[in-house]
């Protein structure tokens, strides 16, 4: 399944799911001193971006090291995206429970796994390994997607007030439906390449 810059950007936004993470962002940031929230959001977004960028740039080496084929990665990525999409569609409304301590979060849970989770890592790895000649496009798409996530993170409480929780949850389910179609396409593409290679 080949991607353009626009389709890669949409795919990354669907996987990163910034709107779906609004309730969790608010819960996490509520434990932080208001004066430090913007700095924390920027720091966690940069950490997530660097982690995803490392997976993107080291994708081919990782596949060779683990003796994995691109077909296997494409099918596995499709399965992971399908699971994430199903969770987005059928998840119960509400906020993920957080620990009661008031310590400022570092890496967990904002950078990992909310931003740079398994599905995002698999997606950037797949993009880079599937079309390595367009690596600059994927890096730019990742940067734009992470910038959008940072904006959502910085204005999480305001966005949830404006949109309302029912609309936020409805948007997340809509994103889940789109992501389901992308996951199915990835699965079919990987299987076509596998069975085509056998003939």
TrEMBL record:
Show the stretches that span the lipid bilayer: 45-65, 72-90, 110-128, 135-154, 174-195
Mode of membrane association? Multi-pass membrane protein
One Gene Ontology cellular component annotation held by this UniProt entry = plasma membrane
Q: Which InterPro entries match?
A: Multi_antbiot-R_MarC (IPR002771)
Protein origin, superkingdom? Bacteria
**UniProt keyword Glycosyltransferase, yes or no:** no
Instruction: Report whether Transcription regulation shows up as a keyword of the record.
Output: no
Sorted keywords for this record are: Cell membrane, Membrane, Transmembrane, Transmembrane helix
Q: Where does this polypeptide localize?
A: Cell membrane
Q: Of which family is this protein a member?
A: Belongs to the UPF0056 (MarC) family.
Q: Which PANTHER family match?
A: UPF0056 INNER MEMBRANE PROTEIN YHGN, UPF0056 MEMBRANE PROTEIN YHCE
Q: What is this protein called?
A: UPF0056 membrane protein
Q: Which organism is it from?
A: Aquariibacter albus
